């Protein structure tokens, strides 16, 4: 009967069309969607499974959301970010209450879990090379080519793996989401339960990612399966929340930990302090330390080192040194990491004398003598931040004390000198390396080659590369890239391209950066055809340019009036699998518009929808500007309305473009109707002000006067300036009576016109025989307390 049931279930699985919707990528910022296998509303629900013999949500159907027929959807379709969280919603700016720390008072430092915590002994033997582990990883990697046979084989392997081997399989996945999906797929298998090691391993893996919701689900599964929770497991959950930016949720794990009956230890508290320090909540971290000490949890050196790092990050190095001095009085002696953290900060700030003082205090107060590691660290940090001369001083001091600095330290100094253009000093350091028997490696030589190329001494760079071969050091990709970059800087990009094409003959492999360096060199010299050809060659070799690099070439072609070639180049990039975006399309559309080829621009605008590249407000603005320039206002109006219907908000540039083109052609009525629709979508305070000022600029004063009422609605300082522009235009045109009317309308809105301008208007009115109007204008000023000169 059982066999018949299994056959029926298998038939139910394999009758649907096959697909595999889950494709892993290397990033974890936008994780895929996986349905939560646990339905309990709390984060750490303690309700056990009513039937422990059958795990909940078990099914042989591996299709999460419609995928079946042997397609193991490693985890159902779940959105880690959208699932409801039990804690309050928090953000980066959400403050942390002191109540989140009071949970420490509820812990009894002598308490323990009701049951004795299970101790998992892990042998040092590496299981990642075991044949079963390798075969399981291979089958997981073939998920895009899944079939029932491979599924059955994977199911068999899953049941045969030991706990350590299963943990090795989970750790071997390059994408954590694949590990999560495989974990849930295995959890749904018939009559199979993951061992506790699988849960512990998954929490440890997810603590290094932002997939906090996955960690939460695994924790809930542990409670359902009655798997003991250790203190470090709660710490892993806290780290997951912290990486996802959910700081308050991370701290509230302490409350769940207390409710779960697990006592807080120093490692969990260290995790909490680390979470606060990383979130730039140093004050709260110090409060947490004080609360730890009050409840009897003694901080260790890791606790203080984390706080010292936080103090140095906010430039409070004096307080960090004070904490180091207080550590022995709290029963915890500082280690070298404590001092090295402060020393590293002082090196970045070029506070060399203080570095020496801290080294002396390290020897005197803590009996931690400076060694080769200390000197290497100081030399490396000083050199990294451009303080090569100070690094050489410590190099000499290390020699006097009998410590031998390795080639890494020397290479750091050489690179610092080369980046600052001090090639003579760099050559002296290289000569010193030979004298001391510390032969330079390819990193050292590459730094020298790059330094010569920075200052344009290409011949010296070539000699250095020949010198490398003589000393048995073969130049690598970085060395050749530096040389090609130097050639491009001096305008020899064609020579750089020839050397690039000879890479196979010289037995070195160019990288994507190498191609990009030469492409930018060709572009800067105006050799756009050669640059585009090199980009296509680059893609044939498996390297894809970014959308920014593509856009630079497209922009260069359009600037030379070759929009058609730019379009062809973009289509070739798309056909070879290179990503393009809306900016690339907009650049080509702008190129067509500048050439006056509106039909090609509109055609490409339609093609954007076919390519799933929806135009943005910039694209619409460019096309509307071109249509207005060619008196095609009906199409421009329809395009603006289409933009608004698609939910795009017009920008200030869009408003200025529309106002300029419509005012230029005198389409004032159409413009005002269109502005009303645009203002409903996005408010723009100076829209009508710009309309009047543009009309004045195009000598369309009557249309400007008709639109004056829309400006005088608000009666602000901007409106007063706009009216002044209109009055000045009327006055220059010899129409002082119209200027007088504008001033009267301003007085009606309690706006005071410009006094000096009104005096000119008054004089012009008197000259034209409108003395009564001139007197009334001056009277309005007198009524408001202005004293003006009398006019005859």
TrEMBL record:
List every stretch annotated Disordered.
39-67
The record's section on Pfam families has: PPR, PPR_1, PPR_2
Intervals holding PPR repeats: 265-299, 300-334, 335-365, 371-405, 406-440, 441-475, 476-510, 511-545, 546-580, 581-615, 616-650, 651-681, 719-753
PROSITE patterns given in the database record: PPR
InterPro entries cross-referenced by the UniProt entry: PPR_P_subfamily (IPR050872), PPR_rpt (IPR002885), TPR-like_helical_dom_sf (IPR011990)
Superkingdom, according to UniProt? Eukaryota
Alphabetic keyword roster: Repeat
Q: Where is the composition biased (Low complexity)?
A: 39-48
Q: Which NCBIfam families match?
A: PPR (TIGR00756)
Question: What family name appears in the similarity comment?
Answer: Belongs to the PPR family. P subfamily.
Q: What is this protein called?
A: Pentatricopeptide repeat-containing protein, mitochondrial
């Amino acid at each position: 009967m059982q066999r018949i049931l299994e056959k029926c279930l298998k038939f139910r699985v394999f009758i649907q069309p096959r697909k595999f919707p889950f494709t892993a990528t290397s990033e974890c910022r936008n994780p895929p969607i996986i349905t939560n296998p646990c339905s309990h509303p709390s984060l750490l629900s303690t309700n056990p499974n009513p039937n422990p013999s059958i795990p909940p949500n078990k099914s042989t159907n591996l299709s999460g959301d419609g995928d079946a027929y042997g397609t193991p959807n490693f985890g159902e379709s779940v959105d880690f970010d959208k699932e409801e969280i039990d804690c309050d919603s928090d953000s980066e700016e959400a403050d942390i209450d002191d109540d989140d720390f009071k949970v420490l008072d509820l812990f009894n430092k002598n308490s323990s879990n009701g049951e004795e915590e299970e101790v998992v002994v892990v042998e040092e033997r590496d299981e990642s090379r075991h044949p079963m582990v390798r075969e399981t990883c291979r089958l997981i990697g073939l998920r895009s080519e899944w079939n029932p046979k491979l599924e059955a084989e994977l199911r068999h392997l899953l049941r045969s793996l030991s706990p350590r081997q299963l943990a090795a399989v989970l750790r071997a996945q390059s994408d954590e989401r694949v590990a999560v999906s495989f974990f849930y797929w295995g959890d749904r298998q018939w009559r199979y339960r993951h061992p506790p090691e699988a849960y512990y391993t998954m929490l440890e893996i997810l603590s290094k990612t932002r997939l906090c919701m996955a960690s939460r689900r695994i924790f809930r599964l542990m409670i359902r399966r009655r798997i003991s929770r250790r203190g470090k497991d709660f710490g892993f959950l806290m780290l997951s929340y912290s990486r996802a930016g959910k700081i308050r949720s991370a701290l509230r794990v302490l409350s769940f930990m207390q409710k779960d009956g697990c006592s807080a230890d120093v490692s969990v508290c260290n995790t909490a302090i680390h979470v606060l320090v990383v979130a730039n909540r140093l004050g709260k971290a110090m409060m947490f330390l004080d609360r730890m000490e009050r409840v009897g949890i003694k901080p260790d050196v890791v606790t203080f080192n984390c706080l010292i790092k936080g103090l140095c990050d906010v430039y409070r190095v004096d307080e960090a040194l004070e904490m180091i001095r207080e550590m022995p009085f709290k029963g915890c002696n500082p280690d070298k990491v404590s001092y090295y953290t402060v020393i590293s900060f002082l090196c970045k700030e070029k506070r060399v004398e203080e570095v020496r003082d801290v080294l002396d205090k390290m020897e005197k107060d803590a009996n931690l003598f400076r060694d080769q590691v200390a000197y290497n660290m100081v030399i490396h940090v000083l050199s990294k931040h451009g303080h090569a001369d100070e690094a050489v001083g410590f190099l000499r001091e290390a020699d006097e004390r009998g410590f031998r600095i390795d080639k890494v330290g020397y290479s750091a100094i050489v690179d610092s000198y080369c980046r600052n253009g001090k090639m003579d000093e760099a050559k002296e350091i290289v000569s010193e390396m030979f004298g001391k028997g510390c032969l330079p490696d390819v990193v050292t030589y590459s730094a020298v080659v790059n330094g010569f190329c920075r200052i344009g001494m290409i011949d010296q760079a070539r000699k250095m590369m020949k010198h490398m071969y003589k000393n048995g050091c073969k130049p690598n990709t970085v060395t050749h890239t530096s040389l090609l970059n130097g050639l491009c800087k001096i305008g020899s990009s064609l020579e750089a391209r020839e050397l690039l094409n000879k890479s196979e003959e010289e037995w070195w492999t160019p990288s994507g950066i190498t191609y990009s360096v030469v492409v930018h060199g060709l572009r800067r010299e105006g050799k756009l055809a050669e640059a585009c050809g090199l980009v296509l060659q680059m893609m044939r070799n498996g390297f894809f340019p970014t959308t920014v690099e593509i856009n630079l070439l497209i922009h260069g072609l359009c600037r030379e009036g070759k929009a058609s070639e730019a379009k062809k180049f973009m289509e070739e990039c798309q056909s070879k699998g290179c990503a393009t975006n809306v900016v690339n399309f907009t650049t080509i559309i702008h190129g067509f518009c500048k050439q006056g080829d509106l039909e090609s621009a509109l055609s490409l605008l339609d093609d954007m929808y076919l390519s799933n590249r929806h135009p943005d407000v910039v694209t619409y603005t460019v096309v509307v500007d071109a249509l207005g320039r060619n008196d095609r206002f009906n199409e421009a109006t329809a395009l603006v309305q289409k933009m608004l219907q698609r939910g795009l908000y017009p920008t200030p540039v869009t408003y200025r473009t529309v106002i300029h083109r419509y005012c230029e052609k005198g389409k004032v009525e159409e413009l005002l109707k269109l502005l009303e629709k645009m203002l409903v979508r996005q408010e723009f305070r100076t829209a009508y002000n710009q309309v009047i000022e543009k009309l004045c600029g195009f000598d369309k004063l009557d249309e400007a006067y008709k639109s004056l009422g829309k400006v005088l609605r608000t009666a602000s300082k901007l409106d007063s300036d706009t009216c002044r522009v209109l009055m000045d235009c009327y006055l220059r045109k010899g129409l002082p009576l119209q200027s007088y009317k504008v001033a009267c309308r301003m007085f009606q809105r309690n706006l005071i016109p410009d006094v000096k301008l009104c005096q000119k208007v008054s004089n012009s009115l008197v000259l034209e025989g409108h003395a009564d109007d001139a007197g009334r204008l001056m009277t309005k000023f007198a009524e408001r307390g202005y004293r003006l000169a009398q006019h005859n």
